[in-house]
Structure formats: structure tokens, C-alpha cells
Amino acid sequence: MSPKSLLLILALALFGGLAGLWVGGLVHQPQGTPPPPGTPMLAVGDSASDFQLPDLQGQPQAFTQWHGKPILLNFWATWCPPCIEEMPMLDAAHRADGSGLTVIGVALDEGGEVQKFLAKNPVRYPILLAGEGAEVDLSTTYGNAKSVLPYSVLIGRDGQILAQKFGLLRERDLDAWQAMIRE
Prior knowledge:
This protein has about 180 residues and is an alpha/beta fold. It is about 35% helix and about 15% strand. It has a five-stranded mixed β-sheet, covered by helices on one side. A two-stranded antiparallel ribbon has the order 1-2.
């Protein structure tokens, strides 16, 4: 092979590689879709936003019914392994915590899927449905700009957001949150 041919092959390979990187950069999508500009998002220190979502029976449940109680708002989905992993811990905390912590699960699935899942994996804390047909992405409103699941928000008795957690809530996280609401 002549040096000219070798140089041409190397130049074409380099060009092809650079073109591939450029195209790959164009089609790469970040995990989660960012919210539209101007979407209100709550942060630690803000007052929790009131909302109303249906429960598993389709009955509307207003967030105001839990005012005055410490709340752990947990956004989850039936297809999310870390969500499923943390559910037994959340259920135990809801039932046994001396701080009066109320866990509220907000499922981002369609109601039928959630009911099938909970028939096999029951929990005793309230489950609300914010899946298909929801007018507002409540998870985003509560600060989940990247649509990460699970996503948890701790709300104090006074309605103030005390903490937010992207991803799996571990026992040490829950212990720290319980200590915050006991103070």
C-alpha cells in the first residue's frame, strides 16, 4: 500500500470518527426531560404547595388533610427498582415512627398498574395517583427538575419543605429526616 493511500484511509477514518462523535452529541438525550421555562419549582425552605390527586379508588384527596403533620412525600413508579426497594422501609416508618411521620406515596403510573402492583406488594401508607392524565407534574413542582425516581420530599408540621432527595432513600437518610422532625 502506498503512503498516499494509507494517509487517505487514516484521514477518512479520522473524519468518520469525528462525524460520529458530532452526530452522537446531537442525538444524546439527558436523563429526564427538563421542565419548560417558567415552571415553578419548590426548594428547601419553601412552603409546600397544595394539590389534589385521586387515591386508588379514584376519590380526590386534598393535601390539606395532612396539614399539621410531618409528611414524607415519595414519588415512585411500579417499574422503578429503587422505588420498590425503599417501599418496605417507608411502610415501616409510616406505621412505627414515634415522630408521627406520615408517608404519602405518589405513583406516576396509571391506576390499574398501581393496583396490580400493590396487590402483590401492599403498603399501609396512602397512595395517590399522578400518572396519565395528570394536569401538573407534581414531582417537578416539588423540585424534581430531572424527573429522577424515586424522589422524596420531607415536609415539616408547619408546611415548610425541610429536605429533598433524588434517588433511593436509605435508612440513614430516613433516620436523619426523622431526627429533623423531632427537633
